[in-house]
Amino acid sequence: MMQPPAIALGLRLRVLAEGPGASAAQVITPAPVGAADDLEALVAFASECDAVTFDHEHVPPAGLRAMAEVTSVQPGADALVHAQDKIVMRERLTALGVPCPRWARVGDRAAVEAFAAGAGWPVVLKTPRGGYDGKGVLVLDSAGDPAWSTAEAWLADWAGRGGLLAEEHVAFTRELAALVVRSPSGQAAAWPVVETVQRGGVCHEVTAPAPGLDEELGAHLTDVALRVAGGLGVTGVLAVEVFEVLRDGRPTVLVNELAMRPHNSGHWTIDGAETSQFENHLRAVLDLPLGSTRARAPWTVMVNVLGPREIEARHEDLYRSYLHVMAHDPGVKVHLYGKEQRPGRKLGHVTVHGDDLESVRARARHAAAFIAGEIDE
Ligand SMILES: Nc1ncnc2c1ncn2[C@@H]1O[C@H](COP(=O)(O)OP(=O)(O)O)[C@@H](O)[C@H]1O
Ligand SMILES: [Mg+2]
């Protein structure tokens, strides 16, 4: 998704791909294959680039530092660690005075139960590193929850690596995300705050702007995101995922986590904003002036196309669904990632924008459900 704006800007992308079939490798050449922890591959790749950036967080700091010896690496290792390690992130945000859920580092079952004694059940356990789409997030309802067998295995696995993150289970009214972008010279811009809907830890739907968002709260959240971007020295796109909660009847936010890259909560910007997160990410990592983040329409809804749970529902070839979807609604924008279908996997997304939220949302949901094979008319 970085390639279209790169073409428009006349920038040459290359990708170090995890495998020859990777989505990015299908549209960018050359695409040498190399693992994110293969120092030699990283340095060989980086030495041929003017700037290096990422589409996932899981590049170990040693690799980032080695690449920074030979080229500009954006964001740098010192910033990126806050998106790689949820405990480091919690420590830093707490030090910056950013509101977070109650949390603790826990090394064993007794520590989890001690945390629950103060914060109450349920407790959310998270692996500090390597998680995404809810993998690495476990909710424990009580001391007798059957999920404890998994929790015990995780605790054992992470015992020698600093333990796990425990958090209070936040009774949020909804999830929001603030998307901002910052350049090395410190210019920053913010897109409208969005509402996100997660199911089983996977993002399903994003509405821009967040409907009915308290104006002051939106400004506060944007300010928090810009403060985090500046405070952590983030370059490129930063997504700040938050929980909206009611405190004494007033809405406020608690920060869930950070992503330092173009993020699913910002895919709506490709069709719905004057400058997409991908274009502004490119501009930022090259320290070019940033483009306008204004929305193109009053409402934009993005719905993910997820691999169907039931094999029978699967379209052998997602392209087959285009005829119906496009004939039905010429305003729908379809984006597919060239990935092999697996249940629940993000295969693509659709976007619709317009003046009426209900109709925009219904149209986007219909198109995504049809492409995914959940409905057949
Ligand atoms: N402390 C919490 N309280 C309530 N729900 C949570 C909490 N932490 C995570 N969740 C839910 O799980 C989802 C995934 O958690 P997150 O930490 O964002 O993991 P990932 O890295 O997989 O995105 C969140 O979007 C939210 O819906
Ligand atoms: Mg998340």
From TrEMBL:
Instruction: Alphabetically list the UniProt keywords.
Output: ATP-binding, Ligase, Lyase, Nucleotide-binding, Purine biosynthesis
Which reaction is catalysed here?
5-amino-1-(5-phospho-beta-D-ribosyl)imidazole + hydrogencarbonate + ATP = 5-carboxyamino-1-(5-phospho-D-ribosyl)imidazole + ADP + phosphate + 2 H(+)
Q: Does the keyword tRNA-binding apply?
A: no
Pathway where it operates: Purine metabolism; IMP biosynthesis via de novo pathway; 5-amino-1-(5-phospho-D-ribosyl)imidazole-4-carboxylate from 5-amino-1-(5-phospho-D-ribosyl)imidazole (N5-CAIR route): step 1/2
GO BP terms in the entry = 'de novo' IMP biosynthetic process
**EC id:** 6.3.4.18
Q: Which InterPro entries match?
A: ATP-grasp (IPR011761), ATP-grasp_carboxylate-amine (IPR003135), ATP_grasp_subdomain_1 (IPR013815), PreATP-grasp_dom_sf (IPR016185), PurK (IPR005875), PurK_C (IPR040686), PurT/PurK_preATP-grasp (IPR054350), Rudment_hybrid_motif (IPR011054)
User: Which terms in the Gene Ontology molecular function aspect does this entry carry?
Assistant: 5-(carboxyamino)imidazole ribonucleotide synthase activity; ATP binding; metal ion binding; phosphoribosylaminoimidazole carboxylase activity
Q: Which GO terms describe its cellular component?
A: cytosol
An example Pfam family from this entry, by short name, is ATP-grasp
Where is ATP annotated to bind?
A: 86, 126, 167-170, 175, 256-257
Q: Tell me the PROSITE patterns matching this sequence.
A: ATP_GRASP
Span of domain ATP-grasp: 90-286
Instruction: Give yes or no: UniProt keyword Cytoplasm.
Output: no
Q: Subunit composition? A: Homodimer.
Its biological function?
A: Catalyzes the ATP-dependent conversion of 5-aminoimidazole ribonucleotide (AIR) and HCO(3)(-) to N5-carboxyaminoimidazole ribonucleotide (N5-CAIR).
* HAMAP family, A to Z: PurK (MF_01928)
**Would you identify the family this protein belongs to, as annotated?**
Belongs to the PurK/PurT family.
What is the name listed in the Swiss-Prot or TrEMBL entry for this protein? N5-carboxyaminoimidazole ribonucleotide synthase
Identify the coding gene. Answer: purK
